[in-house]
Write a structure and sequence with these properties.
By secondary structure, this protein is α+β, with helices and mostly antiparallel strands. It has one domain: Alpha-Beta Plaits (2-Layer Sandwich). Helix content is 27%, strand content 23%. Strands 2-3-1-4 form a four-stranded antiparallel sheet. Helix 1 runs antiparallel to helix 3.
């Protein structure tokens, strides 16, 4: 993730006793974002509330790429197949990255420090 990227986030709320089924049904759809322009994707399940999931994807091209993903036949069918496992409405939220970084282990830095 880098400055200027657009990050889409969706908080999913699984229906009671449907968390595992939702996870199994939606993970492939979350992963498929890379076929529609995303450079990164993430699908997380809360440890505190196992019915809450967060999906994130980085779309450098912004909302247009996200909409190509979200309204694709593949993802529309996945939402329909998973219906009953999650609560509606499902509301995507978009963020613009204003700063990002990562810790690089010392062993990954080449000799000479560059």
């Amino acid at each position: 993730m880098k400055e200027g990227d657009y990050v889409m986030t969706i908080i999913w709320h699984a229906n009671p006793f449907r968390g595992d089924k939702f996870e199994d049904a939606w993970r492939p759809a979350a992963e498929s974002a890379v076929r529609y322009g995303a450079t990164e994707w993430l699908f997380m399940r809360s440890l505190d509330d196992p019915l809450e999931f967060t999906q994130m994807a980085v779309f450098p091209g912004g909302k247009t790429e996200f909409e190509r993903y979200w309204y694709s036949e593949e993802v529309s069918e996945a939402r329909a197949a998973a219906s009953g496992y999650y609560q509606v409405p499902v509301l995507p939220v978009f963020f613009s990255v204003k700063g990002a970084g990562e810790l690089v282990p010392e062993s990954a830095v080449p000799a000479g420090g560059e």
